[in-house]
Specification:
four-stranded antiparallel β-sheet, 61% helix
């Protein structure tokens, strides 16, 4: 009876501990849009944005402290309240309201943030010890010893890794999570860029529709003048002029239909970036403030190291790889196993000197890392991964630098052409068309000359708004490529410190 009591007691203890440690199952409802912390709004123009900072937590602090702070965009400075739907989608909706709404609702941003949080939860797992092992040996037939019959042996063992292994595993997991937070910031930048691109397209299309409708009234005036002159003097102006004016009107109406349908496509792209349900209809009246350009592409290239989240992610991955190298080097050292044994003795036995007193023993053991090829291969793998990350960093830096220089050239091109159109070409083309219309009414110029001036005015006015929208789109892409709000950071090239690989 005593033997079976000793046999069942560890398992009863194990069942009790398992029930106490088992997590409580509660009924939960999974939302289609999990709640994540809202991004911070872009700082006003008077405030210089701060460079991106990753969570200032050591691996030890990440284990012991509460929820870590996330990587934020450079331009994010304060926590916003959720913008009301009217503010984000109404006629008076500002671009910043839509950016805030996208940051809180876009599933790509939420997925990247949740992935980073999931990776950060691996840090305490990586630093933790293995569970201790409790073993119970029951003798079906008691082993007779001088102290008495041996009924069972109960042992408790704990594996202890070599000094620094746990810390290095936690450090590698921590930097892996840091890299994920940086990539979440890159995803957020991409979504902000998509919102700005769609917003700029809507601005151009709305202005193009206004230009077409305005010039449509002027073209109808030309048709009336042409028809009146044909009725009065058919020999001076032919019927083909009336038909040509009507063709121009139909061409204008065709362009208007194209602009209107393209406007619907731009609204669809904006709704996708905002992750709107189908029941919500956008009614946006976009406007452009015309932010100033940075002084040179060199300033933007110098800002890349401090702001670009993909480069920051690669720097953190390199720290992770270096921790992996150090861990691979520590694997050449053995891990220690400590144990405690309890030998339970029966009260009676064959020996005349049997006392029935239990005996206790300590156990010390360690593994023998004798298979060097395995550890050599693991060390080479870690070193190759670190070298690969370094090369990825260099390739990404070159790619981003080329993209920044290309986008800056596009922004400068559109900006200068916008200035020429606004200051010189548009005023002259308006005056030319007005004077040509007056001259045509008194028969001082021909119909074709009037149509040429009309087409020039239509092309220049449309191109002005197209260039203005393309300029803003180039700036939006530049902010995504650089990684921060480039139009609100008044820095000189020498004020931007260089960032080297860790």
């Amino acid at each position: 009876m005593d033997r079976w009591l000793w046999f069942g007691s560890p398992w009863l203890l194990l069942a009790i501990l398992g029930c106490a440690a088992a997590p409580k199952v509660t009924e939960t409802t999974v939302s289609a849009k999990p709640h994540v912390e809202a991004p911070r709004p872009i700082a006003p123009a008077a405030e210089a944005p701060r460079p991106m900072r990753l969570p200032a937590l050591a691996p030890e602090a990440a284990v012991q402290s509460g929820p870590p702070s996330e990587v934020r965009l450079v331009a994010h400075t304060t926590e916003p309240l959720p913008p009301p739907l009217d503010a984000a989608f109404g006629p008076d909706a500002a671009l910043q309201d839509q950016i805030e709404f996208a940051g809180m609702n876009n599933p790509e941003i939420q997925a990247a943030s949740l992935q980073a949080r999931a990776l950060l939860a691996r840090v305490p797992q990586a630093r933790a010890l293995d569970d201790p092992t409790l073993m119970n040996t029951i003798f079906l037939e008691p082993v007779q010893t001088a102290a008495g019959p041996q009924d069972l042996i109960m042992s408790l063992q704990q594996k202890l890794p070599w000094f620094g292994k746990r810390e290095l595993r936690g450090e590698a997991a921590y930097y892996d999570a840091q890299a994920a937070f940086a990539r979440a910031a890159a995803v957020e930048l991409n979504v902000v860029e998509q919102v700005k691109l769609a917003y700029s397209d809507l601005y151009f299309l709305e202005r193009a529709i206004e230009v077409n409708r305005d010039l449509q009234a002027r073209l109808e005036e030309i048709i009336e003048i042409t028809r009146s002159r044909f009725e009065v003097a058919a020999q001076e102006i032919g019927l083909e002029s009336v038909y040509q004016a009507q063709v121009e009107l139909l061409r204008l109406q065709t362009a208007l239909v194209e602009f209107q349908q393209e406007q619907q496509r731009a609204l669809a792209r904006l709704a996708e970036a905002l992750s709107l349900p189908p029941s919500v209809r956008l009614d946006v009246r976009p406007s452009i403030d015309g932010e100033r350009l940075p002084r040179s592409a060199d300033v933007l290239v110098a800002m890349i190291d401090r702001c670009q989240p993909n480069l920051e992610a690669l720097r953190r991955e390199l720290n992770r790889d270096r921790a992996s190298i150090a861990l691979a080097e520590r694997n050449y050292y053995p891990d220690l196993t400590l144990g405690f044994n309890w030998h339970a003795m029966g009260p009676t036995g064959l020996s005349r000197v049997a006392t029935g007193e239990d005996s206790f023993a300590l156990m010390v053991g360690f593994n023998l890392p004798v298979y060097q090829q395995k550890y050599d291969a693991a060390l080479q793998e870690a070193r190759f991964e670190a070298a690969r990350t370094t090369q990825r960093y260099e390739a990404t830096w070159d790619e981003v630098r080329a993209e920044v220089q290309t986008l800056y050239a596009q922004a400068v091109e559109h900006d200068r052409i916008v200035q020429i159109l606004a200051q010189d070409i548009l005023p002259l083309s308006r005056q030319t068309f007005d004077l040509s219309l007056e001259a045509f009414a008194v028969n001082r110029i021909g119909f074709q000359q009037l149509i040429d001036t009309y087409e020039d005015l239509l092309v220049f006015r449309t191109d002005y708004y197209r260039r203005l929208a393309r300029r803003e789109q180039a700036l939006a892409s530049l902010e995504r490529a650089v990684g921060c709000a480039i139009t609100t950071w008044p820095v000189e090239l020498e004020e931007v410190p260089a960032v080297e690989l860790p």
